[in-house]
Amino acid sequence: MTGKLDGRVALVSGSGRGIGHEIALKLASEGARLVINDLDADPANETAEAVRATGAEAVVCAGSVTEDGFAERFIKTGMDSFGGLDIIVNNAGYTWDSVVQKMTDEQWQAIIDVHLTAPFKILRAAQPVISAKAKEEAAAGQEVFRKVVNISSIAGTGGNAGQINYSAAKAGILGVTRTMAKEWGRYKVNVNAVAFGPIRTRLTEGSADGDSTIQVEEKEIKVGVNPDLLTQMERMIPLGRVGTPEEAAGAVYLFCAPESNFISGQHVICGGGFVI
């Protein structure tokens, strides 16, 4: 039995851990060939090995999505390794929260850079490849659809106190999604977004009042969700619990599958019915 993504080349940023890891495995399970990215090489290589263990192909392009030249290197890795570019999932990111009066310029810019500027640069770097491929296919009378899935959040669709930087970036990526759907429609590229609600990852598992941190480019950043707030949120989720990374990956896959070929410029909320 063949998969729905057999032979397709998928680039997934931030796929060394959590939701990104599961997105990579889901796409691989349908036959995609993966370019794995993570800020750190070790988790990226672990995901690549997990993909290969399923029988699928994978290569690694480690490094920060915000570093100069990364976008071009990411696209080149896919082209050099597999000779194509069919799916881009802009998933990399983290949170660095604070109320507006305490948020520094560095906090604001870091989150805008990773969640909004980096996807823009990746799509810009992909344009020459996608344009050339689309023109070749059109000349041959072929209609080949490619996919872009941008990751947003209910913080972007509805705002979230204490996350003005993250909310702004995740709202902005929805604007990117709608614009690129119009720009790239002529190339047969479906551009959509998934806005995650409460999903259990390393960014939410720890307590915001505790000592849970992540390391991002030599910065120790506090993460986690207040346990009382998480309990309150769970009571507001119609399906009765927070989501899993595997379920989040399933929502992304919906926009990568051929059944979504006539859907573009849209976003879906993966949140168990929870909206803000």
UniProtKB/TrEMBL annotation:
Q: Which SUPFAM superfamilies match?
A: NAD(P)-binding Rossmann-fold domains
GO BP, sorted A to Z: monocarboxylic acid metabolic process
Q: Which InterPro entries match?
A: KR_dom, NAD(P)-bd_dom_sf, Sc_DH/Rdtase_CS, SDR, SDR_fam
**Location of the Ketoreductase domain:** 8-187
Do you know which Pfam families this protein is assigned to? Answer: adh_short_C2
Q: Which PROSITE patterns match?
A: ADH_SHORT
PANTHER family linked to this entry: 3-OXOACYL-(ACYL-CARRIER-PROTEIN) REDUCTASE (PTHR42879), 3-OXOACYL-[ACYL-CARRIER-PROTEIN] REDUCTASE FABG (PTHR42879:SF2)
What the record says about family reads: Belongs to the short-chain dehydrogenases/reductases (SDR) family.
In its UniProt entry, what is this protein called?
Answer: Beta-ketoacyl-ACP reductase
Instruction: Name the species this protein comes from.
Output: Pseudooceanicola nanhaiensis
